[in-house]
Amino acid sequence: MDLNDYFASSTFSLVLSWLLVTPTVIPLLVGAAGSLFVKFDGLPRLFSIWVALCLIFSGPFLYTLLQITVGLSYPVQSIWSLLSTLLLSFYIPIVFGLLFAVGLGLPLLVVLVIAGGSRPFRTWRLTTAAIAAPLVIFLSSHVYFLVLPYFAYSTHWLKAADLIAATNGPSEYFYEYVLEPILPLAEREIGGTSGRITLTSKERLRMHVCHTYLSKEKFRFYLRKAYPNRTIVESD
Fold it and tell me: With a threshold of 0.85, does the pTM exceed it?
């Protein structure tokens, strides 16, 4: 536990976070890797591999795993976060399930429609679908992140300290070593009245989480607590 970090998690919370995240996220990652070797519904293996790669690296699949990691870490940060999770459980699966459908389900459906449903598959339709897949998935990913802030209004009422603390432990490592090399979420530097501040990977993750899932007032609260000796120049 970092005593200089206002948003540090207790050792107990970190242990519980790892115990919750590990048996959930690792099987999903393994399943995603395994999908590269599965032949789906009679589709040619190369086509299936290509579409799976597009979904994993061009779509919001890995970002969804980050959401799951933060979400699983959140309830164990405090008594309040545990109690608030009971309320979240009533609507968050629906809200972010719809977002997941927009980012992953819809583009996959479009690609499969282009490929056609006839057996055997026609070569020209498979070729067209393979060419269209990265574009369709890229566009759906763009729409996903465009509408994400609107879906995230549903979490603005959460306590900033608890949600930011959920970025510690497994969330921090998942972002730094899995997601950020593919999809960086925040600038590496921010402006301060006394000069530029270079952010660590953990700080970049926290910046994204605060800016996306918390209100502007709570985002300013984070800046004051995270950088007590610096005045941050906020950008629109």
Answer: yes
